[in-house]
């Protein structure tokens, strides 16, 4: 990919065609970069491209469904929003971004070969979406005292105690004591008879005012799990309940189907 010195926005959706990054040059005016379904080839690292020396004005970065990035090291004075989803093979994520306000990480580290490592320094972060591995020995989120919006947490109602998504969800719920808004997804496997009921492991939620609760019921009754969550929300002022179809990632992770369910005693907000 050549350096477009005058470009302000770049979107690439390549269907996993190979993309080589130039080792020199500056994207002097670039403020938005979106890369999807890209297979990175060559010696130049993506982190070198998007860091301040080569992208001094970059504010929004989105990288999704990519291959060939085993480490992503970003040092940026300008980035305000980063979205990372399904970076296959990623083993190291390092972000130093003092101006960052929004960070979303989904399915990047949880299937990593070996032990994934993440080090995040974003002291001004306001919004955190984290649907990924979260072992505090290797995943260090740094000082995030300003986080007000915590989202994309996924919790499977039935399964095994060592479910990595559930572990990550519980640890994040315990870490953040007060948030303004929480987005939580309760997921049901297609077949639950041979699995444990895991809602009792969820014992605490942050002090919050707005709860956005997604239910991927997959044909199962969800009243008990819903009540378990709501009884912990003593200070709740607003609730939005969405009965929704699973995303592509959720289908792959949990074998959920798009089967619907009616709940006559509660207003359901379909998610579009």
UniProtKB/TrEMBL annotation:
It comes from the Eukaryota. This is FBD domain-containing protein. Keywords: Membrane, Transmembrane, Transmembrane helix. The lineage of its organism: Eukaryota, Viridiplantae, Streptophyta, Embryophyta, Tracheophyta. It comes from Eragrostis curvula (weeping love grass). Signal peptide: none annotated. The chain crosses the membrane at residues 210-230.
């Amino acid at each position: 990919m050549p350096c477009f010195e005058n470009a302000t926005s770049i979107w690439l959706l390549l269907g996993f065609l190979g993309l080589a990054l130039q080792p020199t040059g500056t994207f002097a005016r670039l403020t938005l970069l979106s890369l999807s379904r890209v297979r990175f080839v060559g010696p130049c690292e993506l982190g070198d491209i998007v860091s301040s020396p080569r992208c001094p004005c970059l504010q929004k970065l989105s990288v999704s469904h990519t291959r060939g990035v085993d480490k992503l090291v970003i040092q940026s004075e300008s980035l305000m929003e980063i979205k990372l989803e399904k970076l296959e093979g990623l083993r190291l994520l390092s972000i130093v971004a003092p101006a960052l306000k929004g960070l979303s990480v989904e399915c990047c580290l949880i299937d990593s070969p070996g032990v994934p490592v993440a080090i995040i320094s974003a002291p001004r972060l306001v919004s955190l979406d984290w649907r990924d591995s979260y072992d505090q020995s290797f995943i260090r989120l740094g000082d995030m005292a300003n986080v007000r919006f915590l989202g994309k947490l996924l919790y499977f109602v039935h399964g095994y105690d060592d479910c990595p998504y559930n572990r990550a969800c519980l640890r994040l719920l315990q870490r953040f004591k007060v948030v303004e808004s929480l987005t939580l997804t309760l997921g049901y496997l297609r077949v639950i008879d041979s699995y444990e009921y895991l809602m009792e492991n969820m014992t605490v939620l942050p002090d919050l005012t707005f709860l956005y609760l997604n239910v991927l019921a997959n044909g199962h009754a969800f009243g008990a799990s819903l009540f378990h969550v709501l009884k912990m929300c003593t200070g709740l002022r607003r609730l939005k309940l969405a009965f929704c179809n699973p995303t592509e990632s959720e289908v792959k992770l949990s074998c959920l189907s798009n089967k619907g369910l009616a709940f006559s005693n509660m207003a359901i907000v379909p998610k579009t």
